[in-house]
Design goal:
Helix content: over 70%
Radius of gyration: 23 Å
Length: 270
């Protein structure tokens, strides 16, 4: 009986490990069948094997790593600045009603303007160098981080504040020991959303004005009618984004060990 139970647990672990690969493999299979039997021109949609060959070629030449590194450096600068500003302003505006009423209407107004509309203006003000790209990424990261942080502060249990008032604890003590830890799940969610926005913004910025980066690689592939290069650039962005998001997810699990959260029903247990 115990042997059967152990085998079932092992099979369950294998299924959990392999299940994320099912959908990508299905998509690749459909993609391969469409390009092979669907009379689709290679200049419109390259075959999966061609994309793999191009990927290997770009890796061997070092070009893909150079473009990835250029985008990564821009993202890290803008992501760090946007996260720091978003968390700081979000905590202040969430904790202080007066500051929130002062800042939030203006922040909401700017937030509704697509970041892509700001890029031409940023290029006009700061040129086509690194500054305009980093500022654009910073803006793109700031808004989701700020919004999530403020919502996290506003959604904490009011009992924490009531107990703090009864005990006559200082505001900074309450903020540091109760409010921020309670809002941390919201803050980390905002950071993950900000990371996704960072990748979107950097690609658009590099498409418009850059001589390096994955966005530039995609733009170069379009101009040279090389869809395989474009797909390699897109897939590299996806892989890098998933890897960075997974890293933040690991940090989240370590930082929030105290939290018991619902992981979803296991269908076998229903």
């Amino acid at each position: 009986m115990s042997t059967n139970w152990s085998l079932a647990k092992r099979m369950e672990k294998v299924i959990d490990l392999l299940s994320p690969l099912v959908l990508p493999l299905v998509i690749i299979a459909i993609w391969g069948a469409a390009t092979k039997f669907g009379n689709i021109e290679k200049v419109i949609l390259p075959e999966p094997l061609q994309v793999v060959e191009t990927f290997v070629s770009l890796v061997r030449s070092g070009a893909l790593l150079d473009h990835l590194l250029a985008s990564f450096v821009r993202i890290m600068k803008g992501f760090a600045l946007g996260t720091l500003a978003g968390v700081s302003v979000g905590i202040i505006s969430g904790f202080s009603r007066r500051v929130g009423r002062l800042l939030n209407p203006t922040i909401a107004f700017i937030r509704t303007i697509p970041i892509y509309a700001w890029i031409p203006m940023l290029i006009l003000w700061f040129g086509i160098g690194e500054s305009s790209k980093v500022i654009a990424i910073t803006m793109g990261v700031f808004f989701p981080v700020h919004l999530s942080t403020e919502e996290g502060i506003r959604n904490i249990d009011v009992k924490y504040i009531e107990v703090a008032k009864i005990l006559r604890l200082g505001r900074l003590f309450v903020l540091r020991k109760a409010v921020v830890p309670a809002a941390l799940p919201f803050i980390i969610t905002g950071i993950r959303l900000g990371l996704a926005r960072a990748w979107m913004v950097v690609v658009v910025a590099e498409l418009i004005a850059a001589t390096s980066g994955l966005g530039y690689l995609i733009s170069d592939g379009r101009q040279l009618f090389q869809p395989d290069v474009m797909v390699v650039g897109m897939m590299t962005i996806g892989i890098a984004g998933v890897a960075m998001d997974a890293l933040i997810g690991r940090i989240e699990r370590r930082a929030l060990k105290w939290r018991v959260r619902f992981e979803g029903y296991r269908e076998a247990s229903l």
